[in-house]
Design goal:
Blueprint: H1 25-33, H2 50-58, H3 67-74, H4 79-83, E1 99-104, H5 109-124, E2 131-136, H6 147-153, E3 161-163, H7 174-184, H8 194-204, H9 210-213, H10 216-219, H11 226-230, H12 238-247, H13 255-278, H14 294-308, H15 317-326, H16 330-336
Helix pairs in contact: 5-7, 5-14, 5-16, 6-12, 8-14, 13-15, 14-15
Length: 356
């Protein structure tokens, strides 16, 4: 979150235990509902977090729990902190250019942010752009809950994720992917705007956008937790069951959390509108002028999704105009191919999209 603000209350969590692996429906639902019910204590930076400890025990390489709970844990780090992680330098002149796989769903907001960032990096400097393949993870068919995806790609069961034999571990947060890409391609984070970009990026990741994009009917009881339901399958392997147990940790969308997210979104849009005013110029496309940054990739995708969701109350006119200009660029079309950021039945099955 923005360093200028005080710490936000994080959701209370419960530790996950390995045995027993067989649970009744009532027991599984009880584990889901227990989140946020037993404690309101906020973990202190540097102290043990029971959920993270349990998940790290079950999954190596620091893999965390799923959905909003996992996002909250990762949001403790600022964007500048993520950028300090070591990364192997690469240029296209290398004898064997590495290939990275972006596990992606075309109607996932955070997937769009990541893919747009790769496209902008390619436009800025093809020589330093990672060689990328995009692989569909069809959320409509629950491929993100498959045993292979949960155990080999992303134990959170979310997209995007970035994998490669050249990575020390999979990158399973869009924020981490953005930080890694900026180290690979510093053109996305120009030094003269670095402090501003880091500050606004922290605001983008200060809350989960799902709180702003859920239909009113789903807010009352929270979203369906498909992972918890899948735990009742007696044919699950041990590894798949354990991964689903991690994913089943879930937090309902409380009204106060939605209100807080809306207030933070208003604050973000105000910052973007101010930046657009300060750096405005005739024919300028991007926030800081003629060249895009990592902030453009995130701000455009986020605001475009709000507009497609008809959350016009959250998007200021200046930001709306900026998004409309970017939506007409070749870079945006390479990501969306002219489609909305939201799926609708007129598009047909997501699995049949061509191009992806």
């Amino acid at each position: 979150m923005d360093g200028s603000q005080g710490p936000e209350q994080e959701p209370a969590v419960v530790a996950l235990r390995r045995p027993p692996v067989r649970r009744s429906t009532a027991q599984s639902l009880h584990r889901v509902r227990a989140v946020g019910a037993s404690s309101t204590a906020t973990p202190v930076r540097g102290t043990a977090d029971p959920l993270l400890s349990a998940v790290e025990e079950a999954q190596p390489r620091g893999c965390y729990a799923a959905s909003v709970v996992a996002w909250t844990a990762s949001s403790r780090l600022t964007f500048s902190h993520i950028l300090r992680a070591p990364v192997q330098p690469f240029t296209m002149a290398d004898e064997a250019p590495p290939v990275y796989t972006l596990h992606y769903f075309p109607f996932s907001l955070y997937s769009l942010m990541s893919r747009f960032a790769f496209v902008l990096g390619q436009a800025l400097n093809p020589e330093t752009a990672p060689r990328l393949e995009v692989k569909m993870v069809n959320l409509h068919r629950e491929e993100n809950y498959s045993e292979r995806y949960l155990t080999q790609v992303n134990p959170k069961g979310q997209v995007p994720a970035l994998t490669s034999p050249l990575l020390d571990s999979n990158l399973v947060e869009s924020r981490d992917i953005a930080g890694w890409l900026c180290q690979k391609q510093p053109e996305l984070l120009p030094e003269e705007h670095r402090e501003t970009i880091e500050r606004v990026m922290d605001k983008i990741y200060a809350y989960h956008a799902k709180a702003l994009l859920v239909a009113p009917d789903d807010r009352k009881d929270g979203l369906q937790n498909q992972a918890a339901a899948m735990l009742e399958d007696p044919e699950l392997t041990e590894a798949h069951r354990r991964a689903l147990e991690i994913k089943s940790v879930f937090r309902t969308l409380e009204p106060e959390n939605i209100l807080r997210a809306e207030n933070q979104a208003h604050d973000l849009m105000s910052d973007l509108a101010t930046l657009l005013e300060v750096h405005k110029g005739e024919g300028k496309t991007w926030i800081f002028g003629d060249r895009p940054t990592i902030l453009d990739a995130h701000a455009v995708a986020f605001a475009a999704r709000l507009l497609d969701q008809q959350r016009f109350d959250l998007v200021l006119d200046a930001v709306k105009g900026y998004v409309e200009v970017v939506r007409d660029t070749d870079e945006w079309r390479k990501v969306t191919h002219g489609r909305s950021t939201l799926w609708n039945v007129s598009m047909g099955h997501a699995a049949d999209l061509d191009p992806l």
